Amino acid sequence: MSEDRISYNRYPRFFIIGSVVGIATVLVRELISTMLDADSKIEYLITICGAYGFGIIASFSLQRKFTFHDHGESRARDHFVLFTLVALAGGALVALLAFVFRYAILTDWLSNQYAPTVAFITATLIVSVLSYWVNAKYVFR
């Protein structure tokens, strides 16, 4: 892949892997919640952190192998650190955009029970394109 130009030919694969990992991450959160057998705010936070950690590791491993075809072990740790930073920044950006869409943009256009979901999906799709670009250009270059 060129240093200057990013191809989006692999974006569908990136999106599918991200979707599968997202579903698996939700299931892992449910599993951790069942194993803790409690429902306090602390336990809830533990389940989210554990599941998100799983999601980052699974996504990194699968995206590295199947989307970006990076099999070199020498830079895997560096790639993982950068990938994690991109994932955390992406999560924060999704939260921010979803909040703006829900409470500033969609308030008049879609003010029903689906507005939070539509806002979240819209933000996630936008950030996934940006995340793909950052990972292709800087993480797995």
Give a structural overview.
This protein has 141 residues and is an all-alpha fold. It has 4 helices and no strands. The protein has helices spanning 11-36, 41-67, 76-109, 115-139. Helix 3 (76-109) runs antiparallel to helix 4. The protein is globular and about 45 Å long.
Ordered list of secondary-structure elements with their pairings:
Layout: H1 11-36, H2 41-67, H3 76-109, H4 115-139
Helix pairs in contact: 1-2, 3-4
Using brief descriptors, characterize the structure shown.
141 residues; mainly alpha; 4 helices
In brief, what are we looking at here?
It contains 4 helices and no strands. With 141 residues, it is mainly alpha-helical.
SSE topology string: HHHH
Q: Cα-atom Rg, whole angstroms?
A: 17 Å
Overall pLDDT level: 86
Strand content: under 5%
Q: Tell me about the biggest sheet?
A: none
Number of domains: 1
